[in-house]
Structure to design on (712 residues):
């Protein structure tokens, strides 16, 4: 088997992101837009009236209590990093988000989504600040306009180039969206496998220099007939469980890179099913935020109640997700690397330090 | 108390180098010159006939077996890093040496020592390759010629500036030497406290931008009367144990930075005494190489025998050193930081990510 040699910085970074057995059990607390929206709702105020310090201190609390369960914590450099960095244990890796929260549609159809970088933030800064890897969220719909596709592809390629320059692992998160109608529908559930798989086809191209893909579950269990007795079932089915298993297998066969599953705000029960199905098909773990901790936000600003939720329900959620991920494929066992015994440092030689 | 705010990269780096309680239990395997000399002796060949692959593979074996006991591993980018990087566990930090092994005396008295960088190696490369911190060994004798002092001071300042630029912790190792005679004498033992303490006075100046000092034990227990029944006693005393305790206290009072103790090739029994005395006086742990593993080298190239020694005696040595360091002062409790509750991220604000 032809495996890919790996550069030193990416190798150390990948080792740090996963547990010692190579499985990713990562927590996301880089939410900005969605957290502001939720805090506005909870506090009964306008989004523009949500204070920086509210977001920063809630993130600090979540990070402090939950980070010890994670192999890595993904946070953002605006609200998250400056106040939470001291809360991330030494043996939990640090992932920093590169993209500005949300999306814009300037110059394209109002249903299309363009991602952009955070102002005055660079991958070189992230590395100096202690990041072990970079995460980029790119919205992607393979049937969007050429202008939109080009913009998103160029953006991903830029981050891939910069990560290569700094020798940091590049974790690319792909999020699909509906060009018409809503993602919360049986119609979109039917489209989703195709959208996720075609996006993976695009971004596994070596020119993007991605190291790990962070993917949506490629189907929607809310519209899967076998879950009709679950709390999350929406009453209309796009497929059955055997179809979903096939879709996960097809995704895994398409992904020439290790991949992890994201939670996109679903409830924990559904997320655990996602993790089980994804890892059974070959996923290497998860990078999960809201499914674990979102129900804590409703108690804000009662920090004692937030803390109690985080120490109890949220911690249990995390443990359950970790257990579900025990079946994940270690990243170095992915065909891209071909097993721990085949991991090969790029340019390994007596002259490595000169040529690096 | 006036404490010093700390930048993000240095903060994460220091957290990774120490254990969760802030104590440094670090292993050095960055020896080059001394390892080549020893291998030549063991193999009965000339130093110039020692192969690169012998040094690299011995370092790999030592790193594989002993690194799991360490909070951080210091290796070199020539023989060490390219072949050992996969052997350093995810939760063990990586320190990379910056200086060329040994010293030169070109243009100065033949007894004086000038340190130099490794060719084609930079601190920016070290960071990209995954280093969590940089170590520089500088030979220093405060009574050396002006030219020598200036060269060494300029070199340290250069590394301090580069580490600040990359926001990596800078660990400075100071090693004294004899301008006349030998370091293995009661005369030198008498000079040593003064040499070590005056060197610390120099390099704690903020202009050098050092984060942690790696120091010789500031006295020599081979010449300490209370150890006359030990295997390492040399038969002539420069001081007694109470003097040695005072010297350690004086060193600690002089060091305005956290400091750790080095082993300089002494036997493990003596090193354990050094660690106990240094940590009782306020040291934050150790960075120890040969005292732990040097006796493994004599078995090379019998890798089974090397392995057996490393898994047994050397592992026990490491455990004993770790136990002796349980009494160390956590780095964040040093007066420089003023306690964990006073750790303050530099430029912490809503605009941190823009100003960083």
């Amino acid at each position: 088997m032809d495996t890919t040699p790996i550069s030193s910085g990416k190798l150390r970074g990948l080792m740090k992101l996963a547990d010692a057995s190579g499985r990713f059990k990562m927590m996301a607390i880089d939410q900005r837009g969605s957290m502001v929206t939720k805090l506005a709702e909870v506090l009964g105020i306008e989004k523009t009236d949500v204070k920086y310090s509210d977001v920063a201190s809630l993130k600090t609390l979540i990070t402090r209590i939950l980070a010890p369960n994670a192999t890595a914590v993904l946070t953002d450099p605006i609200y998250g990093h400056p106040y939470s960095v001291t809360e991330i244990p030494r043996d939990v890796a640090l992932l920093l988000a590169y993209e500005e929260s949300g999306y814009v549609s300037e110059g394209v159809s109002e249903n299309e989504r363009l991602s952009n970088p955070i102002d005055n933030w660079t991958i070189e800064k992230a590395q100096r600040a202690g990041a072990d890897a970079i995460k980029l969220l790119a919205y992607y719909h393979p049937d969007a306009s050429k202008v939109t596709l080009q913009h998103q592809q160029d953006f991903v390629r830029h981050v891939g180039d910069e990560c290569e320059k700094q020798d940091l692992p590049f974790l690319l998160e792909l999020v699909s969206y509906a060009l018409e109608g809503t993602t919360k529908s049986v119609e979109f559930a039917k489209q989703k496998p195709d959208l996720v798989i075609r996006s993976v086809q695009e971004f596994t191209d070596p020119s993007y220099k991605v190291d790990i893909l962070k993917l949506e579950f490629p189907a929607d269990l809310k519209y899967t007939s076998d879950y009709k007795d679950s709390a999350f079932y929406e009453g209309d089915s796009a497929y059955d469980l055997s179809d979903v298993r096939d879709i996960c297998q097809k995704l895994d066969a398409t992904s020439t890179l290790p991949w992890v599953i994201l939670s996109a705000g679903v409830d924990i029960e559904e997320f655990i099913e996602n993790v089980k199905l994804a890892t059974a098909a070959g996923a290497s773990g998860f990078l999960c935020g809201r499914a674990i901790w979102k129900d804590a936000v409703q108690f804000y600003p009662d920090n004692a109640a937030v803390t109690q939720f985080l120490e109890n329900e949220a911690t249990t959620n995390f443990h359950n997700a970790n257990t579900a991920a025990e079946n994940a494929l270690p990243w170095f066992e992915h065909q891209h690397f071909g097993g721990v015994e085949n991991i090969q440092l790029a340019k390994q030689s007596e002259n490595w330090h000169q040529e690096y």
Summary: The radius of gyration of chain A is 20 Å.
